[in-house]
Design brief:
The protein has one domain: dinb family like domain (Four Helix Bundle (Hemerythrin (Met), subunit A), Up-down Bundle), CATH 1.20.120.450. It is mainly α and 154 residues long. The protein has a 3-stranded mixed sheet. The protein is built from 5 helices and 3 strands; from the N terminus they run ααβααββα. The mean pLDDT is 95. Helix content is 66%, strand content 4%.
Length: 154
């Protein structure tokens, strides 16, 4: 696995997050997430995948509970938590996940997470984690641009 490329993804996303700090708590509409909520979602993703990355090395087949992003956002209530703290947690958690990935047992890469929509191997799950991160980097950049556009008109 190309963890150097994964590290580059993390660093590039952090640069974007840092540059958008002053926009972190702006909510465009009632049903859109703030940038801080988007970062918190990625912390949730890291936490869930931490469990998956470790447990799938210990068992050949596992079933994990479903993840509902809206429910997690509501329960987390990240609003009063500082953006810099959420960002630091995201960065640290992802560096830790890189450590796990670098030391993953190659024999476990074929272990599967049994899901309703089809099994996924640990190897595919690791790749998908960074695909998910890249999707959110694009969404984050789009949201930041939308906020800047609205702020520019104000």
């Amino acid at each position: 696995m190309d963890t150097a490329a994964y590290r580059t993804h993390i660093d590039a996303f952090q640069t974007l997050m840092d540059a958008s700090a002053h926009l972190a708590d702006i909510r465009l509409t009632e049903d859109t997430w703030t940038l801080k909520e988007m970062v918190a979602h990625l912390v949730d993703s890291a936490a869930n995948n931490h469990q998956r990355f470790v447990r799938l090395q210990l068992e050949p087949v596992l079933v994990f509970p479903k993840y509902d992003a809206e429910e997690w956002r509501n329960v987390t209530g990240i609003g009063p938590f500082g953006y810099a703290d959420v960002l630091a947690l995201w960065k640290s958690y992802n560096l830790f996940l890189l450590h796990l990935i670098e030391s993953v047992n190659p024999a476990a890469l074929c272990h599967v997470w049994r899901r309703e929509d089809g099994d996924i191997t640990l190897e595919a799950l690791i790749r998908d984690y960074f695909v998910h991160m890249e999707l959110h980097r694009k969404l984050f950049a789009e949201r930041a641009a939308e906020i800047r556009a609205v702020e520019g008109k104000a």
